[in-house]
Amino acid sequence: MTGAPRFSVLGPVRAWRGDTELDLGSPQQRATLAVLLLKAGHAVPADELVQALWEGDPPTRAVGTLRTYVSRLRRELEFDRSHPELLVSAGDSYVLRADPASIDANVFEERLAAAERARADGDSVTAVALLRAAGELWSGPALSGLPGPFASAQRSRLDERRLGATEARLELSLELGRHAACVGELTALTADHPLRESVRELLMLALYRCGRQAEALGAYAEARRVLSEELGVEPGPELRDLHRRILQADPGLAAPSVPPEAGEARPRPAQLPSDIPDFTGREETLALLRDDLVDGGEVMATVLLSGIGGVGKSALAIHLAHSVRSQFPDGQLYVDLRATSDPAEVLAGFLRALGQAESAIPEAVEERAAQFRSRVADQRLLIVLDDARDAAQLRPLLPGTPSCAVLITSRSWPAGIPLVRHVALDALPLDDALTLLARIAGEARVADEPVAAHQVVTACGFLPLAVRIAASRLAMRPAWRLSRLAERLSRERRRLAELQVGDLAVAASFRIGYDQLDAGTARAFRLLALPDGPGLSPGAAAAVLDLPPDDAEDLLESLTDLGLLQCTRPGHFRYHELLRLFARSLAEEEEGASGRRAALDRLLDSYLADVADLYRVIRPGYPFADLVSSVRETPAFADPLTGVEWIHAERPAIMAAATQALDDPDAPLERVTALTHVLIQMIDLGLGVPELGALAERTATAARGAGFTLGEVRARYTHFWALYETGRSDEARAEMERLIPLCRETGQRVMLAPALAGRALANIDQGRDAEVMSWCDEAIALASGLGNLSSAAFVGSVVGHAHVAMGLFERGLREAEESMAVFQRLGDLVGQVHMVYVRAEALFGLHHLEEALAAYQECLTLLRMLGARERVPSALVRLAQLHMAADRPEEALAMAEEAVHVAEEVGLEANRESALAMLRKLVSARGL
Q1: DSSP secondary structure letters along 705-727
Q2: Which of these, 17, 187, 653, 747, is most buried using a 10 Å CB contact count?
Q3: In this structure, which long-range contacts are made by residues 485-494, counting pairs with CB atoms below 8 Å and at least 24 apart in sequence?
Q4: How far apart are CA 148 and CA 486, in angstroms?
Q5: What is the pLDDT of residue 628?
Q6: What is the pLDDT of residue 263?
Q7: How far apart are CA 627 and CA 608, in angstroms?
Q8: CA 270 → CA 315, 333, 494, distances in Å?
Q9: Over the stretch 421-436, which tens digit does the pLDDT of each residue have?
Q10: Strand order of the sheet with strand 44-45?
């Protein structure tokens, strides 16, 4: 249960949170709450409460009893009794801080005031509707059943207000010519209040206007008799004057002229389908929409619920409509626009429900729409238009008056329909999905198998229809365990087949939206579901569909408008998981294996070209990008930062595409190994390194199994650097011992040179200094012979890093500065970042602390500019060490704390442990 409680005093004192009624305890305890409700917002002293409940004869421990009542009320009303926010103490007083709109007596008074304003403005129709709505808040005598003098006095006051409002409504109804509809109610009201002359006047006038003059005169005679017998008085001057005018057939008493369609006893349609007894969740949305529909205003309240099939639009609309139906006393109209799609047919049904004779309904849809608007102009109606197709279908069905409210559901957003609120529904939160499962399948079963229950609702994509179907299957099969259904739903190819029961089926719900698509959009819907991954960009969609990017983006937007895709952020589109399975099943039926493979190959080629373009812009001149033979005339990225922004956004989708290709024996392994190799720049950027390492390891295994040695070399090179960067040094060294022989065997000199440099760097702490130096020399010699400045500079940078790590700071500094000069000349931003770091390390080793500090800070700035958050913790740890060496403990501590925070954020355990070790050392040094 969520949300603030709402209260009723116009009848028995009651309270609800959401749809659940709260237990308010004994009559005396409810009487305590009644005092606080009717004085809400004001402090009520304890002694005043005692007098209100017991007057002159309170019990001995009245104050203690009162405290008990308050404590019990808090248990029901507050979310946290230890920190009350609704029923609070103020000294020896109590205050109920309830929203005035949550108390029906306040709403009643607001509606009376609004009716008075409408009446003063000459709008009697609205005034009548408001007064009727005010009267429908009552469910019996005010504060019924409550003891105490306060309740007695307030009951009399409120009941008098109710009677006055009823009289005002009936009086206005007579002014509007609705005399026939008033006679029955006035007769009953007179019987309940035989001494109230004003009610007798209204009854006499209504009878007279209905042509029942004798009965009107009889009502006067009865009033005269009752007043004489009960009070010993004659009727008052107003009643006597009306009697005289009736005897004289005064023309001034005639009924006012009213439009024929207003009638004297209008039908009140009640067409809503039955409410959903196990409706679950959406409390905040319901509260928001109730206010939108009921509050009205100067424009008609039109609310739209949109979303994919099965997300619960209709269920929410019907539940919402039932919750506010009392606020629409002239009735509720409902239509399923998928079943009855012709607006003319819908309008004819509405007009018949409103009392229009069949012969008086015109043929043309425009005339029917005009007649409908005229018919409902002075009525307080709720109109539910379920499963609308588009704006053209909706426009003729909309009233033209703010007294009505319209609730629309649609898979798409019907552009051009003026709305006061649009709610795009998404799947249920986990807790609500589990609650729905339990309500249908059984709470004990869900409680017994919580893990399986979680698996079931997850497989259902938290879609209400899917959860309902799964739960219904369980309810019909009491011998099944939840784990059995969870296992059946885990098989993707069978999942949609499992999600059907009776006439409910997730696939059938999806099919309705799909069948409305034109051929081109339907093809896009099928093909775009083929790639794995979290979503698609317009560029990826263009590759899959083999279309220009603008055309592909138009199709993405169309599918989003139709509720078949979700736009989670600008330029990013995704399917609901069940909808993707449905689209894939259609692709299997209609595209064939070759069509599906071609679409995925185009995506793989596009990603490979994009990543190679990124390599060219962030590592200009480096030869790895040349693995992609086709060079675009126009590069994908104008500058490094644009490319970096792109890889940050697209990395999950690219990794998913590569993994999907590895899982498919028909996918081109050469493309996958090339993509894995050029993705090594993610390591340069400190971006998703563990995931890239896992992909590279799988790729190397697949290439080895296929006998594709070149592909294995490429994958193992990427895998080595991923292992090294994530602190898995032993595994990194083992991988390098497999890689270097392969490079030599296949003549891969372009990779052999940096591989030897990497081998040297990975073995610094292994006591193999002579070998390390030998590998460094060989790496530099090989790189120099390649004739590629960028390769030579990169190898020089790794060797320089190795020399610094060995304590050869002067040599490492010189090599770093030489490589930096090349990287600057080439415009290699990533290379420069590496060299700034190596230079900082060398300067730190040489105890040039201020220069090292400036270099580390420059490195940190560049890393943050590149979004390379996985590399940030290492730089922060080194800054902490430098500050500590410079006797700046406060700055050192700040750097170490930030390093821990960033490492935890990016999820790199090795960096976190290094940062924590530094932090512990600093804390220990300060004696904390």
Answers
A1: HTT-HHHHHHHHHHHHHHHHHTT
A2: 653
A3: 485/452, 485/456, 486/452, 486/455, 486/456, 486/459, 489/455, 489/456, 489/459, 489/460, 490/455, 490/459, 492/581
A4: 58
A5: 62
A6: 39
A7: 9
A8: 17, 6, 42
A9: 999 998 999 999 999 9
A10: 44-45, 93-96, 87-90
Instruction: Using the Cα atoms of residue 787, residue 791, residue 793 and residue 795 in order, give the sign of their dihedral.
Output: negative
pLDDT of residue 320: 93
Query: Per residue in 201-232, pLDDT tens?
Result: 999 998 888 878 888 888 888 989 988 888 88
Give the DSSP per-residue string, 9-71: -SSS-EEEETTEEP---SHHHHHHHHHHHHTTTS-EEHHHHHHHHHTT---TTHHHHHHHHHH
Residue 928, pLDDT > 60, answer no
- Strands 504-505 and 500-501 turn out to be antiparallel
Q: Is the pLDDT of residue 329 over 60?
A: yes
CA distance 737 to 723: 13
The residue with tokens 């993610």 is: 682
**Which pair of tokens denotes residue 713?**
């070399």
The string of pLDDT tens digits covering residues 615-653 is 888 888 887 766 665 556 677 888 888 888 899 889 999
Q: Is the pLDDT of residue 874 over 50?
A: yes
Measured distance CA(654)–CA(533) in Å, rounded: 8
Q: How far apart, in whole angstroms, are the C-alpha atoms of residue 492 and residue 585?
A: 10
**Whether residue 19 has pLDDT greater than 80:** no
What was the pLDDT predicted at 262? 38
What is the C-alpha to C-alpha distance for residues 227 and 209, in angstroms, rounded to an integer? 25
Cα separation, 257 vs 261, in Å, equals 12
Residue 627 has which token pair? Answer: 């693995």
Q: Are 57 and 49 in contact (CB under 8 A)?
A: no
Residue with tokens 């079943």: 339
Q: How far apart are CA 28 and CA 25, in angstroms?
A: 8
User: What are φ and ψ of residue 639, in 5° steps?
Assistant: -155, 165
What is the torsion angle, in degrees rounded to the nearest 10, for the CA atoms of residue 49, residue 53, residue 56 and residue 62?
-70
Token output for 369: 């729409």
3-state secondary structure of 427: coil
With vertex at residue 511, the alpha carbon angle to CA 497 and CA 567, rounded to the nearest 5 degrees, is: 105
- Determine the residue type at 390: D
How large is the average pLDDT for residues 181-205? 89
Q: Which residues of 903-920 are buried (b: 16+ CB within 10 A; e: fewer)?
A: beebebeebbebbbebbe
State which amino acid sits at residue 161: R
Confidence (pLDDT) at 910: 63
pTM: 0.65
